Every structure is written in C-alpha cells, then in structure tokens.
Amino acid sequence: MLFVEANGARIPAIGLGTWELSGRPCGRVVEQALRLGYRHIDTAQVYENEREVGDGLRASGVRRDDIFLTTKVWTSHFTPHDLERSVKESLVRLRLSSLDLLLLHWPNSHVPLAETLGALAHAKRMGLTHHIGVSNFTVALIEEAVALCPEPLVCNQVEYHPYLDQAKVKAACDRHGLALVAYSPIARGRIKSDQTLGEIGRAYHKTPAQICLRWLVQQNVAAIPRTSRVERLSENIEIFDFELSDDEMTRIAALASPKGRLTDYGFAPKWD
User: Fold this and answer.
1) What is the pLDDT of residues 144-155, one digit of tens each?
2) What residues make up the domain containing 144?
3) 44 in any annotated domain
4) Which of 76, 152, 194, 229 is deepest in the core (most CB within 10 A)?
5) How far apart are CA 147 and CA 256, in angstroms?
6) Gap between the Cα atoms of 167 and 154, Å rounded
C-alpha cells in the first residue's frame, strides 16, 4: 500500500468511503475491506453509521494501530463546546479512544472559522484525534484555515475525479503541505462506460475504475471509493501493479468539464 504523507500524517492512498452505507451491511463491508488489506476507513457524523463502522473494525481482527480512521464533524456542531461534545459522542459510537483524522465536513459561514479551528486544534491536544483537517474547502478557505489554525492541518477532502478539474485546490494544498483526499473518485460509477478510460484500461487489463484510481494515486492523492460489493472492494485496491504514462495522465485530465461536479448543495462555498 502506498501512503500520502502530510504534516506528520501517513494516509493510506486507497481507503473505503462509507457514505450511504448503513446497518449491518456497512459493518460487513468495513470488516471485509480490512480483511482484504484496506487500512484507511472514512466515515462522518452525518452518515449515521459510526457505530457500524466501529463494529466492522472490531470484527476484522486487524490491530487498531494499523488502521487509519477518519470521521468528520457536521456543520451544526462547529461552536467550540459543541464540537468537543460531538467528537466525544463519535468516539463513543465508534467505541474508540481516539481518531486518526478529524475533519470539518463543510465550511460554515455562520460560525467564525477561527473559533471552529481553535476547537478542532483543542480536540487534537486533548488526544481525541491524532490529526486534523478540513473538507470541501476552496483555495481561499484553505489559505484562511492554514493561517488561523493553531495546529497543523493535514488534508482537504474534496470531490475529485477525471471529470472535475481540481488543479487550483491541489496547488493550494501542495503549497501548504496538505494532502488532498478524493471522495467520489470514480464519479459515482459514471466512468464505467468512458471510452478513454476503457481504452487505456485495456492496455493494462484494468477496469475504468482502476484507471481512475491509479490516476489519482499517481498525483499523490488519496482516494476513498465507496462500494457495498465485495468484488468491487478487491478491484479498487488492485491498482499498485502498473503505472500510467505521462501522456495517459494528460489524456485523463482532459476529460474534465465545467459541469463535472456531482456534489453541490445550497450551503456549499463558491467553488474555484
């Protein structure tokens, strides 16, 4: 397994995203992923599956120290007292003593960012999490967050796949030593029938999804594809036995379009 390193964190390059997974099937997928060799699991308070993710961690038999676990604080818990309380509740649901990475899930313009980042840094100092970061932050917000945060931020988790150009955000992360973690890295399955990815994949005997994930990893980006199917779990992790050429990397990047974004809400920031 490759790692993306940032400000002291070693983030496994491929992880399992758990958005929309719930109940016992969620626990089983987490358990299976860890048994297959995954060491990076991503959840969030708003997914309402932290309990099941914790069940999967324990059922896998993998040592806690070998697992990189991320959860994300929802925007309604961004005031300092509320953030600390909500993180402790997440740990109770997960039945863990600490997290590996704690993220602010989305920006929230209603609470001063300095206050929220102060609380996030405090959670780290209390030992509730080893590392802290942000999610869905724009270039301007990254700059602001890095300047305001009393502790180093290790990542920005954003939507990233071949149909969405995130060059500006990635450059901002690189500038500040932050990792980029890609959610929806296979564009929620939309890449399956992509001709370019299919053509490149045939040369390596790989699927479009594997080409997509390899493209991200070769940019030193960590990716957290979500799946509920065991065969897909295996497929998504089998990307470390080949390398895309510079020309292929460029061809894949050229698939981006202004309409490529899949995740956009009314409360989202003004995207770059």
Assistant:
1) 999 999 999 999
2) 9-189+221-229
3) yes
4) 194
5) 31
6) 18
Q: Identify whether 78 is part of a domain.
A: yes
What's 82's domain CATH number? 3.20.20.100
Express each pLDDT in 157-215 by its tens digit.
999 999 999 999 999 999 999 999 999 999 999 999 999 999 999 999 999 999 999 99
Choose among 242, 225, 220: nearest CA to 4: 220
* C-alpha closest to that of 93 among 26, 153, 152: 26
Q: Which residue has the tokens 């053509």?
A: 199
- Which of left, alpha, beta for 224 (phi over 0: left; psi -120 to 50: alpha)? beta
* % helix, strand, coil for the chain, step of 5: 45, 20, 35
Following CA atoms 3, 83, 51, 101 in sequence, which dihedral angle do they give, to the nearest 10 degrees? 10
47 catalytic per annotation: yes
Question: Has residue 260 been placed in a domain?
Answer: no
Q: How many domains does the chain fold into?
A: 1
Of the residues 47, 160, 163, 183, only one is catalytic, namely 47
β-bridge partners, 70: 42, 101
Entry field: residues in the chain: 272
Q: How far apart (Å, rounded) are the C-alpha atoms in residues 131 and 43? A: 15
Closest CA to 80 of 57, 111, 103: 111
For residues 31 and 136, give the distance between their C-alpha atoms in angstroms, rounded to a whole number: 28
pLDDT tens digit string along 208-236? 999 999 999 999 999 999 998 988 999 99
From the list 159, 157, 167, 222, the residue with the least C-alpha distance to 190 is: 159
